[in-house]
Structure formats: C-alpha cells, structure tokens
Amino acid sequence: HSLHCQHPNTNFCILTRPNTHTHTHSMVDCHILLYIFPGQGAINPALQFAKHLIRMGVKVTIVTTVFAHRRITAPIPEVLTIVAFSDGYDEGFKLGDHDAQHFASELRSHGSRAIAELITASINEEGQGHPITHLVYTMGQTWAAEVARGLHIPSTPLWIQPATVFHIYYYYFNGYGDMIRKHTTTDPSCPIEIPGLPLLLTSRDLPSLLVPSNSNSYSFALPAFKEQLEYLLDTETNPPKVLVNTFDAIEPVALRAIEKFNLIPIGPLVPPPSLDRKDYAEWLNSKPESSVVYVSFGSFVVLSKQQMEEIARGLLESRLPFMWVIRETEEIGDKLEELEQGGIVVPWCSQVDVLSHPSLGCFVSHCGWNSSLESLVSGVPMVGFPQFTDQTTNAKLIEDVWKTGVRVTPNEEGIVNGDEIKRCIEMVMGGEEFTRNAKKWKALASKAVKEGGSLDMNLKAFVDEL
What's the number of CA atoms in the CB half-sphere (13 Å) around residue 79? Predict the structure, then answer.
C-alpha cells in the first residue's frame, strides 16, 4: 500500500491503491464503512466479506487498528481502502500482560474518533467522492453503531461466530440465565434445554463466558454481547438484521429460531486456497492421500508446556505423519528433534492451503469458528480440542450435529493426556462415517459459495435494500 494522505488533527492514515478497477455493474452509491475488531478471528472473515462486496461493485472502506492492519497478509483488492488508527496497542493486546478493561476502553475511545472523522469527512466531500452510507461492524462493538447513529448513518453487525452461539447468548440474557448458572455451578453434567435448539447441552458445551468456573480473561466480552443484543432491539422497529458467518445447511434451525432477529447467513467467509508454493508443500506432496494429521491452535491460544508435551506424545505414539504449527513463542522442550523424525513442525502456514491438500486426513484444532468453517469447506474431519469462548460450542456442533469429528476429554487437572489424543486421532482417521460426513458438508459449503448460492443471493439482497 502507498500512503494516500494524512488527515489533519487525527491519529490515523489512509492506506490505499489508485482506483483502476471497473465493475460490470455498479453499486457505488452504496459506500460501506467496515469496522473490524483487532483479532485474527474477526480480521479473516471481515476481509472476505469486504472482497465479496467489492465484487458486487460496492465501495468499501475498512477501519481498524494499526495492529490489525499489520495482520492483514492476504492480497488486497486495488479498490479497497484501509484506514488504520492507533489504539495504543500497536503490538497487539496480550492476555495476562495487559488489562482487558483498559484495552476495551482505549479501543472504544480511539475507534469512535476515527469512525466519526471518516463519516464526517466523506459527507463533507460531497460531489468529489462517495459519502459513507452504511456501517458494518464486527460483533460486540456496539459503540461503533452508536457513533454512526449519532451521524445518521445506519449500521448492521457482522456476527463471526455460529448462529447457535448467538441463540445461546440471546436466551441467557432473556430468561434462561439463572437456569444456566444453576446448572453450571451445581451439576455440570445436567443437560440444559434451550428453546428452539435441537440439541441438549451440558456445561462443557456452553460458550465458556457463561461458565463461572472458567476464570476467563474474556469476561469483558459478555457485557458487550448483552449490550449488542439490547441495542439492536431498542433501536430497530423491524426485527434487526444480523449478518452471520454461517450457511443455511449447517444451522437451519438456529438461523430462524429467534423471531425478534433477522439472522442472515452470508458465509462461509473462507478464503480460497492460494496457488503459492510453500516450503511445506513438498513434504505434503510426498504423503499418501488422507494420511496426514494437521495440528494447529490458531493465533491466540497459549498451551502449557505440559500440554504441549502430551500432544507431542500422542502424535508420536500414533505413528502417523503430522504437521504441527508451533509458534516461536511456544515451548516444546527437548522433543523437537524426535518430532521432526515423525512429522514436520512449522511456525506458521496458510491453513486453507494445508486443509485443501489431498494428503490431509484429520485436523486437531482448538475449534475457533474460522478453523471449524475452513475444515468443513475443505472436507477434513476434526479432533476438537476447544479452549474458551465459542470453541466449546463449536466442538459440540462438530461432534454431535455435523458428526465430522470427536472431542478430546481432559483429565481432572484439565490436561488432555497423550493416550487420549492418540485415541481420538485414531478414531477419526479410521472412521469412514467422519470422512463421509465431511465430504457431504464440503459439497454443501461449495454450493453456498458458488455464484447464485446463498452467500451471493443473501449478500445481494442485503446490498439492494441499502
């Protein structure tokens, strides 16, 4: 990107390329400002969302933090403008090192100013540019909607977790909170029935924010979700629209079960595999079809040294070829040399490229929603190893609804031992049902994203209404 301009009296700059692109049909009267929360779980789907809009001829401006902008490594369309502002956390927010409340407060303060200045500047440039006509913001960031509303700009949230999780939060805040709290504290194995959900949940299947025993650094997110739901119902006369990164086939009931909201499935927002040759491609090419175990816990999960050693033991004892993403900040002790005899260890990889490789047989994952969708889109069965937030519910969907994998069970100390990891890997790699179901969902995901599919049609209808 080249530096386009520095706004006077502001702390952000616009990074863009010259507009040399033309569209077959134009919707340039519609200019969407897309605010992205600075977390990888939000950045990836929001970027895909922006690209889909641009292909429809919509003008899109992304506004996010300096840290988030640095995390965007994928190719950017020429006509996409990205505005980066500093929230004081340019190296990123680190759990344990930083105060979550301070981070949320600074993000809100600096983000509000950036959004207000962008909207105001676009309106003042009337006749020269395209005024911002709508704000889309990643979930839980209601302050962004409030800023836009104060400037008479309507807004829509982009929910980047499954519709099932939205559904659970809705009922938790609307009459079922006491019942859920009671079950999670007195009898964690007691089944919890939530209206309209076709599956029974226990404490371990709920989003971790709802389980008091989890001393959770994400506790600030729960009030944000409550504020999100209340704001939408307070400010909209018709059932408020919520764009959801899912598709109809995988969540047909949860998408329609709450009459007060209009949940619009505009997923799966997953990037296509790239054609770039990576260092590890040759290794994958040398392995038989459906033989490789791929292990990755996303960009945020930090596992203890003991848990890392147990994963290493489970992988080595399975005697299957594996590819394990271990970030440079993670500890594996003296096991690295032994691991490299049985597999390959990398600090980073293009996950969609790896999952779409024919040698992949199974994905050991933290069950973040992006990873879960990427696995479904690629047709790869999973071993679910959830840690927090929505991952626990995603693992339930994988195991009991889509039936594309199994979930590990930790011991009393909360550690998943090597034997359990080996057992789950062998179960998934040897189970024809998992492979058959994974192929079924892959075909349905492919149908959703093709031209004329649900992603295309629902997004076009949303833009037409704007």
Answer: 20
pLDDT of residue 124: 87
d(CA 357, CA 139): 32
Residue 343: give its domain's CATH number: 3.40.50.2000
Residue tagged 């490229």 (tokens): 353
Q: In this structure, are strands 2-6 and 12-16 parallel, antiparallel, or unpaired?
A: antiparallel
pLDDT digit string, tens, across residues 331-349: 777 777 889 899 999 998 9
Statement to judge: residues 297 and 224 lie in one domain: no
Determine the structural domain holding residue 339 and report its residue range: 281-447
Whole-angstrom Cα distance, residue 380 to residue 393? Answer: 19
Q: What angle do CA 295, 298, 300 make, to 5 degrees?
A: 135
- Residue 149 shares a structural domain with residue 171: no
Question: Mind listing the pLDDT tens digit for each residue in 130-182?
Answer: 899 999 999 999 999 999 999 999 999 999 999 999 999 999 999 999 999 98
Are 19 and 99 in the same domain?
Answer: yes
Phi-psi region of 378 (alpha: psi -120 to 50; beta: other; left: phi over 0): alpha
458 lies in some domain: no
| Residues near 174 by beta carbon (within 8 Å), at least 6 away in sequence | none
Would residue 93 count as lying in a domain?
yes
Q: What are phi and psi of 183, to 5 degrees?
A: -65, -40
The model's pTM is 0.93
The pairing of strands 81-85 and 12-16 is antiparallel
**Residues 6 or more apart whose Cβ sits within 8 Å of residue 20:** 78
Beta bridge partners of 135: 33, 155
Q: Select from 162, 218, 151, 213 the least CA-distant residue to 185.
A: 213
Kindly state whether residues 308 and 413 are assigned to the same domain: yes
Which residues of the chain have a pLDDT value below 70? 1-28, 95-96, 126-128, 213-219, 275, 277
Distances (CA, A) of 148 to 83, 111, 122, 231, 273: 16, 12, 13, 13, 35
Residue 290 and residue 187 in one domain = no
Residue 227: predicted pLDDT: 96
Do 296 and 285 fall into the same domain? yes
Q: Is residue 256 domain-shared with residue 335, that is, in the same domain? A: no
Residue of 193, 210, 211 lying closest to 201 (CA atoms): 193
Q: What is the number of structural domains in the chain?
A: 3
Whether 98 and 89 have beta carbons less than 8 Å apart is answered as yes
